[in-house]
User: What shape does this take?
Amino acid sequence: MDLNDLARSSGEWLKGTGPESDIVMSSRIRLARNLSQFPFLSRADDGVRAEIERMMRRHLQELELKGHLNYVDVNALEGLDRQFLVERQLISRELAESHGSRGVGISAQENLSLMVNEEDHLRIQVFQSGFNLERCWEEINRVDDLLEERVSYAFSEQLGYLTACPTNVGTGIRVSVLLHLPALVATREAQKVFHALQKIHLTVRGLYGEGSQAMGDFYQISNQVTLGKSEAQLLKNLRDVIPNILEYERRVRNQLIKENRPAIHDKVARAYGTLRSAQAISSEETMQLLSHVRMGVNLGLIDDLDIPIVNELFIQTQPAHLQKLRKSHLESAERNSARAAYLRERLARN
Amino acid sequence: MKCRNCAKVATLHITEIVKGVVQEHHLCEDCAKPFLENPHLGAKSAGVPAGPTTGGATSSGEAPVDEQDRLICPACELSFREFRNQGRLGCSHCYTAFQEELLPLLENIHGDTQHCGKYPKRVPEDNQRQFKLIKLRNELREAIAEESYEDAAKLRDQIQQLENQLSGDATR
Ligand SMILES: [Zn+2]
Ligand SMILES: [Zn+2]
Assistant: This one.
């Protein structure tokens, strides 16, 4: 698979389509699975890791999926390419930063990724643009069934699918949605919302998962519990709660507009102006300004820009993407001017 | 410092005094949540599990901590102490080897210790019925809690049917 081909598109989770896509960037489900005949990875030596990788690679390549699955040997990739896959959410930072035999199978539309030798032997992920958890579940359940015909998963009748970390045992499922909440963040209402979510056992994370900063007002909401509830119940929990957050974000947006349209318009227009004319700009500032612009487009304050282009800019201005597009290694300062140049060119073309 | 329940970085450091014994808990954000909501968990037993600091306060008849530490999984030779330090189990048999120690931890993380979701098709048919039963009973509880009585009635019928099948098999 040529990663340079991927670099030119923006993948499923940034398509900017699907239900509620003004606020819900994407829906994602992942399943953690282990093979019954091997120890978990913390007790697997290089030989065992290599055996698991060889075996899973073969199964993934033979899997009867609708589309083609590309297998990438992550161990053989350069650091920049691994970072690139992390930015696209196709692999986790953990997989990128660990060592030894490991890999990932990626579908052509980038809506399915199967990580081999991450924290568990297998991590399956399915993405959908917008708010569409059911589609994600149908798809991932089907892929999991197909794999189950080929391999024997570690499973116990009491504890379900056995995982390396007890926080994932049972269903091994993490159901999550990625939300863009600029108005709730600006009015400091977001903290209250997150606090309420934690009380009902939902976890809030930044864009790139655990420990990552919430960049550009993006937050991932997901289930914390994996044992004792069925996949359907866990899905339903999230599906029932998210509409309340969406409604809240929209209400605050409208309120902001009603109370202070000139100030909001000014903030949005300045953000847009900076992105179109800056000569050097950091990744963080870009994310923050794109967040304002994204809200501006959704509120009708910017009319010559579409959400898919804004989403594309979010990903293409990330450090590894920028370097792949430029086809060269860039130091931080060089990246900042390359990023500004890219934004000027892309937004002028629009 | 690592969280004592899992491999994440501990961000919350909680000190409490239980029966005159000072206890320190180093937890990540996720693991700290149930603890903060119910601080008694830490004192009572392995709710916040099996750290050396809970030793003085364990009164529920569990193995003393140094005894727990000596536990070793026969399949992968991971010790319970290593698990506590790294937060990862070594193999699927660890769940059996450390069952007594893990169940309170699982109860604390998930609020439950019985799986009720998907199961592999290769699981024997009888056990599949058991799973289905657990799942239906679970759904029944929720239906009643949500006052969806129509759903509850349907679920009750399904449960009854399954129970009959299971007892029928047992007497055959
Ligand atoms: Zn933890
Ligand atoms: Zn073991």
Observations:
- Residues 17-22, 38-61 of chain B have pLDDT under 50 and may be disordered.
- Chain B touches chain A through 48 residues (CB under 8 Å).
